[in-house]
Amino acid sequence: MSRLRDSEEEAERIASAAEGLAVLLDAGIAPSSAWRHVGRASLHPVIRQVAARIEGGSAVEDALTAEAGAPGRDGGVAALSAVWSVAVAAGSPLSPALRGAAAALRDRAEVAREVEVALSGPRSTARLVGWLPLVGLGFSLLLGVDVLGVLTGSPIGLGLLGAGGALGVVGRVWTAALVRRSTPRGGVPGLEEELIVIALSSGLSIERSRRLAAETFGMAELATAESSAVDGVLELAERAGAPAAELLASAAEQHRRSARASGRRAAADLGVRLLLPLALCVLPSFLLLGVAPMVLGLISSTVEGF
C-alpha cells in the first residue's frame, strides 16, 4: 500500500473519530467518557491508544499529546491534538472545533485520494519500464540465444552486464526518488488559521489567539509555511475592520484548494520527468542486457557455423 493511501485512510479514520466525539459531547457525555466510547469503536490504533491512556487515568490533553508526539505518527493525530488543546485552553466549545477538524481532515484525505489517482499512471509506467531489461533477457532466452553465456563468458559481455545492471539500478532508484518527491507531504493545510479561529470564537483577542495557536503548533511539532499568510490576513482584518475569523476561515479554505492543485500539478509534472530515467537509464540498460548480448550471440553462432 502506498504512503498516500495510508495517509488517506489515516485522515478518514481520525475524521470519523472527531465527528463521533462531537456527537457524543453534544449529547452531554463527558470528554473522557466520549473518548472511551469512540476508542472502542474506532479502527484507528492511535485513537484506541489515546482511549486506553484516558482509561488508565491520563487527562485527555496529555493522552493526545503523548500519542501525537510518538515516532512515526501521521500529521492527522497531531492536528486533532492541536485542535483539542486550543479549544480547551481558550475555553471554546469542543464540538464545533472537532467538526472543523473533521472537515479539514476529510479534505486532506480527498487531496491524498486525488493525487493517488493522478500518480497511479506515472507509477505504473515507472514500474513497467523498470522491468524492461529483464524482459529483454527473457526474450533472448526464448529465441535460443545463450545470453547469460555471452554476458559472463567474455570481457565484452562482462562489461555489458556491469554497465546494464548499473544503469538499471540507477534508473529504478531515480524513478523512485522522482515519485517520492512528487508525493505531497506535510500536515493539514490551513490548520494554523483554523486554530486561531477556534481561539477567537471564545472571545480571546487576536494577539492572544495567535500566540496560543503558535504555542500549540510548536508543542505538536507541526510544520507550517502559512505563518506569513496568517500575518497578512490579520493585518488586512485590522486595517479594514473586518471579522478576522471569517477572513482566516477563507484563507484556510484557500490553502486546502492550493494543496489540492499543487498535488495535481506535481502528478502531471511527474509524467514528464519520468522520461529522463527512462531515456537515460532504463532503455540503455535494456539495450545492453537484452539486445546487445543477443546480437553478439547471433554473430558468435554464425561465425562458429562457418
UniProtKB/TrEMBL annotation:
Residue intervals passing through the bilayer: 128-150, 156-175, 274-299
Localization: Cell membrane
UniProt xrefs under Pfam families: T2SSF
Domain Type II secretion system protein GspF residues, every copy: 21-139
Membrane topology: Multi-pass membrane protein
Keywords: Cell membrane, Membrane, Transmembrane, Transmembrane helix
Record bears the keyword RNA-binding: no
Gene Ontology CC: plasma membrane
Cell membrane in keyword set: yes
PANTHER family linked to this entry: CONSERVED TRANSMEMBRANE PROTEIN-RELATED (PTHR35007:SF4), INTEGRAL MEMBRANE PROTEIN-RELATED (PTHR35007)
Record's protein name: Tight adherence protein B
UniProt organism field: Leifsonia aquatica (Corynebacterium aquaticum)
